[in-house]
Structures are given as structure tokens and as C-alpha cells.
Amino acid sequence: MSYFRKPLHILAKPGDVAERVVTVGDPKRAHLLKDLLSAPRLVNENRGFYVYTGEYSGVPISIAVHGVGAASAHIVFEELRMLGAKIITRFGTTGALIVQLNVGDIVLATDASYYSGGIYSQYFPGNISLSAAADYALLKHVEERFAKRGVRYYVGSVVSADRFYVDPFAFAREWTSLGAISVEMETAVLYVLSKIRGFRALSVLLVSNSLVKETGYPTAEELKKYTMDYGDILLEALASFRV
Questions:
Q1: Running DSSP on this structure, what letter comes out for residue 208?
Q2: What residues does the Nucleoside phosphorylase domain cover (predicted)?
Q3: What's the confidence (pLDDT) of residue 126?
Q4: pTM, entire model
């Protein structure tokens, strides 16, 4: 566990955070997803890291905002673990790197590549690079739920990059040659911390745009139906997964 025992940003009390957590980058997505829970209550709003805790099918689940990028997300993942989380999932958006992916598809991230340096170098001495991979049992369980609902999904590698405004075509060429199918910003740090801190992790990513074909950038409102439908599947999967 971390050297720190008391969270400095998520000011929740012991028992406020469930063992099963869905994290999101956009606060608007958290406000939407909380309505899928029974009796959701706001247990933190400090620093804009909103955390709601309620129940799904009688099982306690929390929904938490992790912000944008690894630097913000690692704080939330660390503190959720301090507060008792045993499963931390990320339900976010991702940009397609392959033409087969369309807006509205789901990517279940088996693993995530990341750049050395930045937040990662703070955890590893020297030239160590830790494998950033999902929990296999959790991935299979969630995949079965999406398959059962007839959702179009892909299982594969992603790349987590803190660079947002870059040449999309050059970036896509670079990373598809290395096997990545989509890009986002937080999965790698989630998976790395799951190994260090001892919790199960999985990223379930909604394709919101493409770096290899023209799709535009749908608004949160335009993606709302996907968010609610897929969020419901993820919550059902978590509620039925044994911690």
C-alpha cells in the first residue's frame, strides 16, 4: 500500500467508498451514471473529484471522477484504494486507431502502452517498466456481459498518452504498427497501480472519435445513450462479479 494512509483529495469517511468502483474522466458522465444506482449519495466533491455511492441490484458500487490524464487519475486511483476499493474500472472515451472501430463501439483494454518518464518514473527506480495489463478474470466476466447484450466490442491493446493535440495521422501510424487499436489517457496508470497496490482493474472504453477516418467529436449529449446503456452493462457486470 501507499506510504500515505489518509486521502488528501477524496475527503470521504471509511465505508463511504464501495469495494467496486467505476471511474470516469468527465464529471457529467458521473452525474449521469449515478442515476443508474439506487439511493446514490454524494460522498466527495472536494477538488471536483465527485464520488457517488449507491447500490446496483443490492450491491454497493461507487462512481468516481478521476479527471484528465495520468497525473490527475493516479491520485484518485491511489485514494480510492486507501478507502477500500478492491475493483477499480475506468469507463471512459477513446479515439480509434484502426478503421474497423466506429463511434459507439466498445474497446475492452487488455493492456496499455505508456511513455517512460512523467508520473511513471516517480514509481519506478532506474529503467524499470512495469507491465500494464487488465485483470483477466474481470475482463472475461465483463466481456461476457457485453456479448450477451449484443454490443459491438473489440478486445485489444490501447496506448495511454498525455499528449492530446498531436498530428493524429502520424500518431496512428506509429502506434498501430505496435499493435494498439485505440488511444486514451489513463488506462496505463490504472493498470500499473493495480499491480503495485493490489486491486483488480479494467478499462471499458467508448469509441468517441477516430484518428484514421472522419468522425468529428460527438458531444457528451450525443454520446448519452451509449453512456447509459453501456454503463448499465458495466454496473451489472460489477455487481455480479465476486470480489
A1: E
A2: 20-221
A3: 67
A4: 0.95
